[in-house]
Structures are given as C-alpha cells and as structure tokens.
Amino acid sequence: MGVTVTVGEQDAYLARVGRAGMLMLPMITGIGEQVRAWADELAGEGITALAWDPFKGRSTDNTSRQELSGLLREMDDDTALAEQSALLDYLIDELGCSKVGVIGWCLGGRFAFLLGARDQRVANVVAFHPTVPSDRPPHHTYDAIAESAAITAPVLVSYPSADTAVPNADFETLQTVLQARTAGATFTQYFPGADHGFSDKSRHDKDVNADAFRLAWPQALAFMKATIA
User: In which domain, by residue range, is 137 found?
Assistant: First the structure.
C-alpha cells in the first residue's frame, strides 16, 4: 500500500489516505517490514502514516541488528529532530493533514517525547517502550524525561516492567513529569513481565510480550483516532 517518498534530502515511507496523519519513528529495526506493515495498517484505519528512516535505507531487511545498533550510537539528536520536523512539515503543508500525531518505539519513543515537546503542532504523542534512561548514553544530547514536561498534547506511554533499558524508577519519574503537566492527558499502559521492545515480532516467542502487544495496540489505535480524527 505504501510508497517511498523523498522529502528534502531524506527518504520516508508513506501510506496515504486522508487528512489525519501520524509521523512514525521506528525502533532499531529501521523501516523494516514490520514498520511498513504498521504504516499500512494505520492507512487501513483511515490514518495517513509517514515513517522516518533513521538509518538511511538500512533496516533489519538488509542489515544486522548489531550494525544498526552501531549506527544508533552515532546518531545526532539535533540532526534527527530536524529530519523529523521536516516530515511534520511535509504531512501538514504538502499532504494537507489537518491534525498530526507522532508514534515511536524504543529509540523512536524517545524522539516522540522530544519532538512533542518542541512542536506544538503535534496532536498526540504515542511512545511504546521508549528508551529514556536517566543514565543517558553519550549520543543522548537531551533528557527526554525532563523535556516531556513541555508536551501539551495527550500522551500514551506503554511500558514493560522487565525493561532492562529503562529502570522502573525512571519510568516512575517519567510518569510524575507527565502527570504534572497543566495541559495534555496522560494514558499509561503497564505490562508486568514484558520486555523492552515487546512490540517487535522477534520478541513474540515469549507469550508475555505477544500478549502485551495484543492488548496495547488496539488501545493505541483508539487513542490515535480520538486525538487526530
């Protein structure tokens, strides 16, 4: 259903149907088969989906996760945010979307918070198992937990209790920050025993992860429709 489009100097995956839009920020898989399938599914639900390509043509379709992890450690926050902002512009100015939200997974969940804090055009923020540890690695220029205080849009965050990338204490801090906002509702999904990245099909050999995603995804779809329709 979707096609590759060029926006400025970057390529993105587009599944276009109407005036409600979601900017998709992938996990370590990049725009692999699974992310494209999610974009197509959103389009099937009446939502135009545009997926950012974090690794410039490289994904789990053609590159090992180890190599992609290496590329992630070289990623610059400001460059990535500029690319994402350009895609928001494209959704609104070129495609004519009247409302646009942002959804991200893992690394993309972190950027969803950062982008939502910076751009008031964002109508919702959906973050699946966002990689927002308080002990930030060198390539994390910005503290996504602290910056989420500036988000004015409704937020849905999905967290697995066995997340080894983000300790439970950090998630509790994130919750405190989000719930202290004076604008923007906070919706929380909490899955005991599920792992970081539980949305990834490669982790669905564990029932707890597959079950978590089976519950989480329909609620996220409903949230997106309610906030951008």
Answer: 3-228
